[in-house]
């Protein structure tokens, strides 16, 4: 698929071939191919200078992003691309006054094509790629294609609750997301459904095992510890434990009908407090997801139909 988050095609053989020579850039013009390269700097007029092997690449401010001309996108969207990979379509090649081969590029043209040919066709339940660009307290902004942004709210990231999106994702991380809705081209996203049901996650563990976990909340009656992003257990209260601690825990019991796991904290560990993502869904679309077990009185689900 050609409409991917920025940074996904820069190392492909086609991208390397087409950006290496004037002939390759000319071919890209004729065929309308979207390419990628690294933005080296942003000038005082907010033009992006792009690293091309065979020419000086320039993305003029007005071509830097969809919405710049209208004012709906701020110039920070251009400044923040410095030293990062940008996508673009080649508009023209010419010799400058000092006889330097110059390539006029348009990131906006790539984004407009992506929006028309790809984003507009997305439907609820579609599973797509996204790259995390930056975090806010309420969620992570992600690139869903050619630098076009969407928001992944913090409460959709996992079943296990987190304090900040950086507890779940790293900036620049390539992840999968599910389209929750497409309202006139504005894409709403979710993520937790990809991380498995209670039963799928609980099947990874057995009573009697000692495993790593992350403390997510400390209550008077116990300590909630994340074993996976979609599975948490409860340990008895213990002094000196705070949210974010990495711990080792002994699994006492697993109770499917109540969707509960009872734990005992063995030790506090000096290691990175982040659990890896494991995706349980490999298809390109999902209609319905049921987190709850068949024995549970709770009914936790997502319906994309």
From TrEMBL:
Keywords: Ribonucleoprotein, Ribosomal protein. InterPro entries: NA-bd_OB-fold, Ribos_protein_bS1-like, S1_domain. Transmembrane segments: none annotated. Coiled coil: none annotated. GO terms for molecular function: mRNA binding; structural constituent of ribosome. One of its GO terms (biological process) is translation. The keyword ATP-binding does not apply. Pfam families: S1. Residues 125-192, 208-234 form the S1 motif domain. SMART domains: S1. GO terms for cellular component: ribonucleoprotein complex; ribosome. PANTHER family: 30S RIBOSOMAL PROTEIN S1, SMALL RIBOSOMAL SUBUNIT PROTEIN BS1C. Belongs to the bacterial ribosomal protein bS1 family. This is S1 motif domain-containing protein. It comes from Ruminococcus flavefaciens 007c.
